Amino acid sequence: MKIISTQSDSFKKEFDEILARAKTDIKGVSSIVTQIITEIIEEKNSALKRHIQKFDKWEVKSDEELLISKEDMKKAYENIDENLKSALHTAYDRIKAYHEKQLPKSWIDFEKNGTILGQKVTAVDKAGLYIPGGKAAYPSSLLMNAIPAIVAGVEEIVVCTPTPNNEVNELLLAACHICNISKAFKVGGASAIAAMAYGTQTIPKVDVITGPGNIFVATAKKLVFGEVNIDMIAGPSEIGILSDSTAKPKYLAIDLLSQAEHDEMASSIMITIDENIAKQTSIEVENYLKTLSRSEIARKSIDERGAIIVASSMDEACELMNEIAPEHLEVMTTNPFDLLSKIKHAGAIFLGENTPEPIGDYIAGPNHTLPTGSTAKFYSPLNVENFMKKSSIINFSSQAIDELGEACAILADTEGLTAHAESVRVRLKKDN
User: Fold this and answer.
1) Residue 270 — φ and ψ, nearest 5°?
2) Is 402 annotated as a binding residue?
3) Which among 81, 290, 347, 357 is placed 20 to 30 Å from 385, CA to CA?
4) Which residues pair with 269 in a beta bridge?
5) What residue ranges define each of the domains in the chain, with the CATH number in brackets?
6) Quick one: pLDDT at residue 432?
7) Which residues are identified as catalytic?
8) Which amino acid positions bind Zn(2+), per UniProt (predicted)?
9) What is the edge-to-edge ordering of all strands in the sheet holding 229-230?
10) Rg from Cα positions in the chain
């Protein structure tokens, strides 16, 4: 695994390449995605069926075949191993409990002059969840996207997932059953995003679309934003690790590889203050690569998008990691909480050697749908508020408008909006 030092003359160039890790050629696929969206808008189910035959390699003979039945979900749930069933329920309960703490509250405030101001929080009516199903299917992604929508109080949840050769992952079906999903469809890629954004004869139009996907899915989400809300534009998975001389190289190596095995575009970056730890971790990475089931994918990711940086101090290490703003950040130091105040940008922060990133993927409770490609500088993890919106509440008394009306009218005059000003002043003329 490549090791670079902040003291190297070439460090700035090499670090800039790391920061550019998430730059993807959206322009290169935008014309293709635009065409797919246009076809869905104009032809609806007919286009969906054509796209499924082209990309997922099976023929949809009727609209009903697009729907995944609740019976199939229940059957899959009943047939899975009892230990796995228990694990899914444990994950569900922990994710639900965590997200319930996020619920925003409506509030009302009363001023002395009779003014009433407040905020009303309501769930969106319909949410669309995109769950990947290409190289691998992720039941955990269904839980992570569905549960905050359930907690928010969304009335209708729509799930779309690709089904190559018309095969649906059994664990995904079981997760749908646990979440009581009633509308799930065998549609993937940009077609699914367009269908949920604009609606077809079978798939309802939704208000918000969440969930990860490939560059075509990400581009489609970007293009339909405004017609619907979206959670974020997520790219390939990534991990950052901060370590000192007390970290265990075996832990560091396998944690770096836990993201590298996702796909070739994944990024695994460690910053340490100990050169010996850097070398030992690189050796352990090589040892583990010989044993992984997805070793070819992990190898390419590590070789092309992985790096170990040796920093001169932990302060410098934190500054560099804040620039990277990773999706997942592990802090493997003697006292990890001591660094928490120095960490500004990360999707999720994992503190201590007993908190590997996969704990967050499955069982801890916080959401694993996280900002990637440095967007943690301005995006947050998927949460309950992605499925809710706020309305302002305003009520002025007679006394309140007498006190504040003229100031309001003056501001309207300043902007040349005479009807605005008169709308207030007419209420100040009590004889009216």
Assistant:
1) -115, 140
2) no
3) 357
4) 240, 307
5) 3-23+235-364 (3.40.50.1980), 26-230 (3.40.50.1980), 396-428 (no CATH)
6) 59
7) 327-328
8) 259, 262, 361, 420
9) 67-68, 183-185, 156-160, 126-130, 208-210, 229-230
10) 25
For 223-271, write each residue's pLDDT tens digit: 999 999 999 998 889 999 999 999 999 999 999 999 999 889 899 999 9
Among candidates 241, 272, 244, 265, which has minimal Cα distance to 254? Answer: 241
Closest CA to 310 of 68, 71, 3: 3
Residues of the chain where predicted confidence (pLDDT) is lower than 50:
none
Q: What is the pLDDT of residues 33-70, one digit of tens each?
A: 999 999 999 999 999 999 999 999 999 999 999 999 99
Rounded to an integer, what distance in angstroms lies between the CA atom of residue 386 and that of residue 103? 11
C-beta atoms surrounding 188 within 10 Å: 26
Q: Please give the pLDDT value at position 235.
A: 85
**Residue 262 assigned as binding residue:** yes
What residue type is assigned to position 40 of the chain?
I
- Residue 99 labeled ligand binder: no
Give buried/exposed letters for 69-85 (b at 16+ CB in 10 A, else e).
ebebbeebbeebeeeee
